[in-house]
Write a structure and sequence with these properties.
Layout (H helix, E strand, L loop, with lengths): L16 E2 L4 H7 L13 H5 L1 H13 L4 E3 L7 H8 L3 H26 L8 E6 L2 H5 L15 H17 L4 E7 L2 H11 L7 E5 L13 H8 L5 E7 L6 H8 L8 E5 L5 E3 L3 E3 L2 H4 L1 H11 L2 E4 L7 H12 L3 H4 L1
Parallel strand pairs: 1-10, 2-3, 3-4, 4-5, 5-6, 6-7, 7-10
Antiparallel strand pairs: 8-9
Length: 326
């Protein structure tokens, strides 16, 4: 697979970049209690940064080329409200998400990679405004009806500023449910001309993002930005990926790639939690070759996808085990 121009500087070879999986999933597997926490995994930046380092490291050992910071549900406002921090300390804490990931990537290179091999990339995670609201609206985008594009830019600006200043290799705009929010992020990115990013939507079915807008329309909005290296989707069922990419394949800018990192495909029950299914979890490695043929150059997992799944994904797409990858 040839790599599109914007992504080429980040790639070692012609294969896709392997993303990590669900950071919160791995933290919870190691004993962290995150459900119901208004800061989710971002709280551990304050209370247990070593747990985040360890989770990043396990994904790198599994073969991930890109690790994503523990900042999805982080915000300067949220840190001030829930941790009683000053504005400056809140900024420093948010920036520490990038620093932890970079330190872990450098340690991984020092421990296991031959001299001259590229260091894994760090993607600074930016979740939707709905994640801050704690009402599930990150999967509907309903909040955007009462906000302007400028309102959304004002909300996201401090987080993007922190991640860019901390030196994230890429900004990861994740689980974006609203076409208006996508417009805001595309506009905001222009204020950080040295930053590159990807934008991943949350989607409700094989044609539409979560607010009901057509995925094709969402993709066309992202084509306005020369700073975006990829557009796609995350945290939806793996079964939705192929029809969504098919629907917009002719509209993707030739300089851009698809980014794809669905969840396990398992169902979430508000009373019982995740209804586990090994069959569902196996879908990502199984379907990933199809996504790659459709033009996906960044492929990984989201909720309920752990290091073992990422190792299987790497084996499927690169034909190498994590051990031989290092």
């Amino acid at each position: 697979m040839g790599s599109p121009a914007r992504l080429r500087p980040y790639m070692n070879d012609n294969g896709p970049l392997i993303l990590d999986g669900g950071l919160a999933t791995e933290l919870e597997a190691q004993g962290a209690h995150l459900q119901g926490d208004p800061l989710w995994s971002a709280r551990l930046l304050h209370t247990n940064p070593q747990a985040i380092r360890d989770a990043h490291y396990r994904f790198l050992l599994s073969g991930a080329d890109v690790i994503t910071t523990a900042t999805y549900q982080a915000s300067v406002t949220g840190f001030i409200s829930h941790l009683d921090l000053s504005s400056e300390c809140a900024r420093e804490l948010l920036m520490s998400g990038v620093q932890l990931a970079k330190e872990t990537a450098e340690r991984f290179v020092s421990d296991s990679r031959p001299a001259g091999q590229r260091c894994p990339l760090v993607a600074g995670s930016v979740g939707p405004y709905g994640a801050f609201l704690l009402n599930g609206s990150e999967y509907t985008g309903a909040y955007a009806q009462d906000m302007t594009v400028e309102d959304l830019k004002v909300w996201h600006r401090p987080q993007v500023d922190c991640l860019a200043a901390a030196g994230a290799d890429l900004i990861a705009f994740e689980t974006i449910p609203s076409i208006k929010e996508a417009e805001a992020l595309v506009e905001l990115l222009r204020e950080f001309p040295n930053s590159k990013a990807w934008l991943a939507f949350s989607c409700k079915d094989g044609k539409c993002i979560s607010d009901g807008s057509l995925f094709t329309d969402a993709v066309q909005i992202t084509n306005r930005s020369p700073q975006l290296v990829a557009v796609g989707l995350n945290c939806c069922s793996p079964a939705l990926v192929e029809p969504l990419l098919d629907s917009a394949g002719s509209l993707l800018s030739p300089d851009m790639s698809w980014v794809v990192y669905p969840n396990s495909g398992e169902e979430w029950n508000s009373k019982q939690g995740w209804l586990t299914s090994e069959k569902a979890s196996a879908l990502i490695p199984e379907l990933s070759r199809t996504w790659m043929k459709q033009g996906a150059a960044l492929i990984g997992g989201c909720c309920r996808i752990g290091p073992a799944h990422i190792a299987e994904l790497r084996q499927q797409l690169k034909g190498s085990s994590p051990a031989s990858a290092v």
